[in-house]
Amino acid sequence: MSEGFLFFQDGKQIDTLEGANPSSLANKIAKVAGSDSPGISAAPASLGMAAGPMVLETVREFVKENSSHAENQSQSGVTDPLEKQLHQLLNSHPVMLFMKGSPEEPQCGFSQKVVSILNEEGVKFGSFDILKDNKVREGLKKFSNWPTFPQLYFKGELLGGCDIVIAMQESGELKEALVDHDDLLTTSSNEAKVSEAGKGVISESTGLSETLTFRLGRLINSSLVMLFMKGKSDEPKCGFSRKVVDILHQEKVGFESFDILEDDEVRQGLKVYSNWSSYPQLYLKGELIGGSDIVLEMQKSGELKKALTEKGIIPTETTLEDRLKNLISSSSTMLFMKGTPDAPRCGFSSKVVNALREEGVGFGSFDILSDEEVRQGLKTLSNWPTFPQLYYKGELMGGCDIVLEMHSNGELKSTLSE
Fold first, then answer.
1. CA dist 124 → 59, 154, 165, 186, 282 (Å)
2. Which of 109, 151, 337, 347 is least enclosed, having the fewest CB within 10 Å?
3. DSSP code of residue 277
4. For the segment 338-380, what is each residue's pLDDT rounded down to a tens digit?
5. What pLDDT score does 195 carry?
6. CA 81 to CA 95: how far, in whole Å?
7. Are strands 235-236 and 287-290 parallel, antiparallel or unpaired?
8. pLDDT grade, residue 181 (50/70/90)?
């Protein structure tokens, strides 16, 4: 019988893991730690460490004790020649980043973020563009048992993806991991070097003046959602800028924009500042998300809405069940009908409206023809397949026949007055 782990929550076994692959273990622990409610899955570790630095430390200890199993697990499903190539790539540099694009021209916001963090920490690193070799791209997913990119490795060991690298930087673990490896740090890692040249102080890391750097930072942070584009939001001058504007409108997100065609200093400076060579560029709370293709991809996958919610830019979306319960309780007597009380769209709805008015009962109403999601959802919630539906104090009274029967025998008014 192979060694592995059992995961328990509230005294019940909820998951298992054979072996001790680091990414799988991190994923499992983050899943358990990230959800207190049965049936609600936490974000996988590759999309954010729900349990924070403690999970990283726990995983690290487990992996040390079970390194042989981790190695066997990670190699499953990878052919020998490809495995050899992956080993060579992993060990080609002490700090190795598998990313989309290159450090000079990242092709996704997550890759760009990890590059920025490594540059901020003054870390020397190698990189491999997985967009140029699909065999390596797919093989590394199986080898590391980690489904997304970027992937950052230190001395051949997987550290994780973008969110884990962010968490490690914020907790100081990234710097701590490299503190005894001076050969991996640039000479400017501890103190930014500046030199006098031309217009004031110039940063050696970017070549931008302090004045321009300050201005760019202020522009980026001038709005929670900031779009640097060609043209204005109501008059885009390129299709890519127009697409991002349309997406933000579709997501009902308020944003500010800056026309880079009107200021070449900002246009050229921001390319260097963000390490992103094209426009448009979208920023959320000062953090670069990416260009048109990335924003479109994030919208399709739901990651854009998730990012907007996590950063507090848009409110947390309520579930359909919560919305239905809020509608039902919006009035003590609530009628879900076809049409409105003044303009019913079916005879059954009209009869219920007349019965309530004859009894002198005040009531709220909702036109289920105006919202198909509510219409279908309410059928399931109430286990009642037809409309109208009458509710009193959150409880279903019934449909047309029941309401008319209660009206005729005198029970309707007394029931709705309790």
1. 25, 11, 15, 6, 28
2. 347
3. -
4. 999 999 999 999 999 999 999 998 899 999 999 999 999 999 9
5. 32
6. 23
7. unpaired
8. low
Determine the average pLDDT of the residues in 31-38: 45
**Residue 288 and residue 304 share a domain:** yes
Domain annotation covers residue 315: no
- Domain span at residue 145 reads 80-183
Whose tokens are 């050229």? That residue is 268
| DSSP 8-state assignment for residue 196 | E
Do 68 and 97 reside in the same domain of the chain? no
Q: Which CATH number goes with the domain that contains 268?
A: 3.40.30.10
CA distance 333 to 126: 66
Among the listed residues 135, 45, 47, the one whose alpha carbon sits nearest the alpha carbon of residue 89: 135
Whether 136 and 49 map to the same domain: the answer is: no
* Residues 177 and 85 occupy one common structural domain: yes
Separation CA 331–CA 364 (nearest Å): 6
Rounded Cα distance, 350 and 387, in Å: 11
Domain assignment present for residue 188? The answer is no
3-class secondary structure, 229:
strand
Tokens of 407: 């009206």
Task: Report the domain count for the chain.
Answer: 4
Least Cα distance to 335 among 255, 373, 389, 285 occurs for: 389
Residues 263/267/273/279 CA torsion (nearest 10 deg): 140
Find out whether the peptide bond into 280 is cis, omega within 30 degrees of 0: yes
Residue 148 has what DSSP assignment? S
CA end-to-end span of the chain: 65
Assess whether 221 and 304 both reside in one domain: yes
Interatomic CA distance for residues 238 and 356, integer angstroms:
57
Among 247, 328, 315, 254, residue whose Cα is nearest residue 280: 247
Q: How many residues does the chain have?
A: 418
Task: Report the C-alpha gap between 8 and 161 in whole angstroms.
Answer: 26
Chosen domain end from 183, 217, 251:
183
Burial of 362 (0-12, 13-18, 19+ CB in 10 A): exposed
